[in-house]
Amino acid sequence: MQTQSPRPNNPSPEDARADVCRRDFVRQAAAAMSGVAIVVIMGESGAGASEEQAVGAASATRSSAYDPTKHRYIYLIDITKCIGCGACVRACEAENNVPPHYFRTWIERYMVSRTGADLTDSPNGGRDGFEPRVTGEDITKAFFVPKLCNHCSYSPCVQLCPVGASYRSPDGVILVDEKRCIGCGYCVQACPYGSRFLHPETHIASKCTLCYHRITKGLKPACVEACPVEARKFGDAEKVGDEVSELIATKAVGILKPELHTGANCYYVGLSQEVR
Amino acid sequence: MRPRPYRDDMDAVLMEPIVTTSGRFYVVVAILLSFILWGMFAYSYQFRHGLGATGLNEPVSWGFYVTNFVFFIGISHAGTLISAILRICNAEWRRPVTRMAEVITVMVLAIGAGNILVDLGRPDRLLNVIWYGRYQSPLLWDATSISAYFTASTVYLWLPMIPDIAILRDNVKKRRWFYRILAIGWQGTEKQKKVLQRGITIMSVLVIPIAVSVHTVVSFVFSMTLQPMWHSTIFGPYFVVGAIFSGIAALIIAMLIIRKVYHLEGFLKPVHFHNLGTLLLAMTLIWTYFTFAEYLTGFYGNEPEEMKVFWSKFNGPYAPYFWAMVVCNFVIPIGVLSYRRKHTIERTLIASIFICIGMWLERFIIVVPTLANPRLDYGVGEYLPTWVEWGETAGCFALFILFYVLFTKIFPIISIWEIREGREGLHELNQRVRGYLPDEVEPPLAQPVSLKI
Amino acid sequence: MEHTKHLWRVLFILLLVAVAVVVGRHFVIPPSFGLQGFYRYDSLAEYAAKPVMHGGSASCAACHQDIAQQREQGKHQTVSCEVCHAPLALHAKEGAKTADMPLNRSVGLCAYCHQALKARPATMPQIDLREHLTKLEVITAKDDIPEGACVTCHDVHNPAMEQESPPEGNVSDANAVPATQ
After folding, report:
1. Looking at the domain A51-269, which fold is it?
2. CB pair distance less than 8 Å for C29 and B131
3. What is the dihedral of CA A118, A120, A123, A127, to 10 degrees?
4. Domain coordinates of chain A in residue numbers?
5. What does pTM read for this prediction?
6. What are the boundaries of each domain within chain C?
7. Can you give the pLDDT of all 181 residues of chain C as single tens digits?
8. Are residues B378 and A26, on separate chains, in Cβ contact within 8 Å?
9. What domain range includes position B301?
10. What is the ipTM score, two decimals?
11. How many independent structural domains does chain B possess?
12. Residues 17-56 of C with CB under 8 A from A
């Protein structure tokens, strides 16, 4: 809480201590149990590593004057604006070379009727747009919900990676180390948002990176760049006067599945209770 | 029942499979090898084409392999756990049973763990689990627990085998160097016997918690996630119970096949099957109780995500498997095992076969429907295994049988020295049983006590 | 105890294994592992080094000044060039053209955004294409919709028609609403 920028609803790690957090419990218990092993690892290659080693390792990131510890990214989706055109899905595919029929971001169409029939669909993730649909139901409201990785603060996927391939970067992006992942698929099923998949060619877990190669250069993620109606917004909670932080602080926003206590960092304007 | 006079050559039948080999053996091995080759071909195909060659997909990314993994690890409980419990309880009827059980454990553990390897997208990076292992991950708990169990149960298989290996070393001409190494200089002296006995006791105490931990953490892989119908507190004991349940059934099947093939009717008598059948019946009831508790809790809670999975099992696409499981694991065993005074062996065999099928289905029913109904509002997943999965599954079962067959050709499948010890210890046993009763040296009571019930 | 030496042997083997793991780790684990947490910190740099595909509309304007200006004046000003065309990286590299930009003139491209859908916000201009074309008497009810039907009348970079057609039901109602900013 050291910056003036608003950080609504998004507890820092300090807050989490006070909060009931099962993951911290497991983490601490495990750390205590394997204390010796951890100390050895850290002592060898981690915190205790020599200074030049540390500098050398991070130089690739730091050479571009980008310091991950100075950012914390957040994402805002305005459901009331989304037109379901699928431009974001196509842009994501082109930007990140996403294999066909797999999605790092996708759009769901919710159609709510008086009978409560389940009419939600997402044909090809919304990549090819949506067709009008004759349901025979009395549709009372309908809307599009774009989804992507929520880059959770306490992410269930990172928690149970057996090899430390999934991690949360200092700037708040959940990434998969492409050289470490063994492709066990455990994180894929642990994600309650369905944002991960096993890549059919590399056979490792793949997911939204918030276009890490773009945001580290000051660009917006491809999906945000592509959205024609500004339904997707990308912000940095560490930046003073950040537009998204401001919106989150002042407007009615929600996150997906708050009951799971994942600390999702993807906020929604106009979130309806039908959305799961 | 009067014990027949003890003759040393009575045990010759136990040595026969090691000394002589019939043509039938080669036929069986050839059939098994053909299945194994099919499995190997399937895996090499999958290795080249990736997991896309299987029916695994998004969102059902775990299917047959994980089902096999859980099933095989479950079967492994037959062995060591049951044998250890029977040993500690001094159950005299255990003598011809224990080794068969212990062998199952060792073989099946390796195959079960192999199924996880097969399920990996990048098996070439398996060593990352050692170099970068994170103890926060239940998969690491699994790796630790299973390797500990494998080590312990191998030792526990080998220790009680030492005197038998020494018999082989002294009597069999083949592979003498091999037996000499494994017998580590056993001469049967009193001191050696004492040490061995202590070793076996220590190991049998040790393997029980390890065995329980193994299936507990296997269940933790599922229950530690937030997924509907996985995130359950009773999964640990539920899996352990299911493991012992399927383990006993597999053990009974293995015993019956060996009894038939190697003519061991004299050693494996109806009473053994009767006793194991009683255990099996008890486990049926416990398993049913757990299943009932698990599903009723989920149903009563009525959480929408849970209910999607629940109904997909009860009357949705997985209903045939679910109800087949109920029939195989509950209806048939209860019906068949409740009255088994006549046809004991046939009845336990029927129950065991159905339970093995039912428990495999149970594992499948736990793994797949949850994955097919993720916490999303659209796109229910489907899972249709391809020939690759069928091939590898068939290969796994064939490999297990082959291992077992080869074991019986190298080591006596029934513990020779323990049978002898049992025969010789009849007097001791008599004393022991007497020890359970009120001591006879007590002075008789002065006046008869009137018993009012 | 007379057999303690066995225990020492086991402990010695365990110690050897532990030493082997520690030494092996030293060689296997890359230096950046554990720098910021239990992961390889260099992985971040690898992600950061991936190629950028979309350059954004400003990068297009560097060469296509005229079209960019045209777009700025119309209702499609919020639509990034690369949404309808293709990512910049497929077309140009360091200011020089490497390949032709694919042009998509199909009605499907327009339909992504303008096909009338219940779930679409009402402020979005949207049409039922067949109804739109028959009402304007471009086609009869039986004809197939010609490929490129939209671009024959509308300028894709500034799509509003010079003269707005008189109000005729839903279609022009929708057209009359300005695009969301």
Report:
1. Alpha-Beta Plaits (3.30.70)
2. yes
3. 180
4. 51-269
5. 0.84
6. 30-100, 104-181
7. 566 787 888 899 999 999 998 898 888 888 888 888 889 999 999 999 999 999 988 889 888 999 999 898 888 999 999 999 999 999 988 888 888 888 888 889 999 999 999 899 999 999 988 888 888 888 887 888 888 888 888 888 888 876 555 444 444 344 444 433 3
8. no
9. 22-417
10. 0.81
11. 1
12. 22, 25-26, 29-54, 56
